[in-house]
Every structure is written in structure tokens, then in C-alpha cells.
């Protein structure tokens, strides 16, 4: 008897597409570039008061009170990881937890006024730091980068 161990239902499985050498090389290059960009963004953490991970979480909460499970799904991480981050942010007075009025077993995480202020300050500081790097590009390179970002967004959106 053959046992299927995948968590995904059989109907959801997709065949691996056949890629050209050019597409494979581009995929490898894109993964590498995204990894390097992630490292760059994380390197900014040491200069600021909140990590990139917590800043991402705060950005989601800024949209309105959210359940931890929703935050975890949006960030594509486990619920315990989000809970740990929420506890740290709550300890620092940046978010608050309140009972969910629609489900007494759940809580909603909301940003505080101090959290909103810090989020906006951190976002601005990171934008300025990245902008300083972009300022070293030529006008032609900036146009090329803007065009590439549109293509990258199409790739991300699928």
C-alpha cells in the first residue's frame, strides 16, 4: 500500500514546469538578489529601535486590530512566533491585546499611539537610509530600477 505523506491534497499538487536554462539562471539570480536585499534591510535593524520583523508585524496591525492567527497567515509564519513578537511589542507599550468581541476565546492585537508613532519614525528612517543608497545611482539606473520593480511586482503577484 502506498501512503501519501504530503499535507497538500492530491488535487492541489502541480507538476514541476520544464524551465529553460535562461529561466533557471534568472530564478537563481532573483533568489540571490532578494536574499541580499533582505540582508540589507536587516542590517538596518542595528541602527534602529525595532527589528524589521517587528516593524512588518506593526505595519499589519496598523491597518486595524487583528487576530494573531490572521497576522501569522499574512506573515507566513507560525502563530507561536507571532505571539512571541506581540508579547515583546506589548511589553514595550507598542501594541495592546483586547478580547475579540466576536469570539470570547480570541484576542485582537491593536497598535498603541506610541506604536504608531514609532512605526512611522522607523519607516521614515529606513526610507532615508535606503534612499541614500539610491541617491548614488545615475538617472538612467534609477529609471531601469523603477522598470525592474514593476516587473518584479508582476512576478510576486503571480
TrEMBL record:
Q: Which InterPro entries match?
A: HTH-type_Bedaq_tolerance (IPR052526), HTH_MarR-typ (IPR000835), WH-like_DNA-bd_sf (IPR036388), WH_DNA-bd_sf (IPR036390)
Identify the Gene3D superfamilies for this entry. Winged helix-like DNA-binding domain superfamily/Winged helix DNA-binding domain
Which segments constitute the HTH marR-type domain? 23-154
For this UniProt record, the keywords arranged alphabetically read as follows: DNA-binding
Entry GO MF terms:
DNA binding; DNA-binding transcription factor activity
Q: Is DNA-binding one of the keywords UniProt gives this record?
A: yes
Provide the protein name.
DNA-binding MarR family transcriptional regulator
- Name the lineage: Bacteria, Bacillati, Actinomycetota, Actinomycetes, Micrococcales
Amino acid at each position: 500500500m502506498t501512503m501519501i505523506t504530503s499535507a497538500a491534497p492530491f488535487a492541489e499538487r502541480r507538476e514541476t514546469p520544464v524551465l529553460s536554462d535562461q529561466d533557471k539562471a534568472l530564478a537563481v539570480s532573483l533568489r540571490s538578489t532578494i536574499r541580499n536585499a533582505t540582508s540589507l534591510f536587516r542590517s538596518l535593524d542595528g541602527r534602529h529601535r525595532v527589528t524589521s520583523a517587528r516593524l512588518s508585524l506593526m505595519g499589519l496591525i496598523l491597518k486595524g486590530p487583528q487576530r494573531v492567527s490572521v497576522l501569522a497567515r499574512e506573515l507566513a509564519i507560525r502563530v507561536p512566533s507571532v505571539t512571541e513578537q506581540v508579547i515583546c511589542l506589548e511589553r514595550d507599550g507598542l501594541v495592546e491585546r483586547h478580547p475579540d468581541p466576536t469570539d470570547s476565546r480570541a484576542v485582537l492585537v491593536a497598535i498603541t499611539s506610541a506604536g504608531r508613532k514609532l512605526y512611522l519614525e522607523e519607516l521614515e528612517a529606513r526610507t532615508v537610509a535606503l534612499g541614500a543608497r539610491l541617491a548614488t545611482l545615475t538617472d538612467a539606473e534609477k529609471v531601469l530600477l523603477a522598470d525592474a520593480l514593476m516587473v518584479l511586482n508582476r512576478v510576486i503577484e503571480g
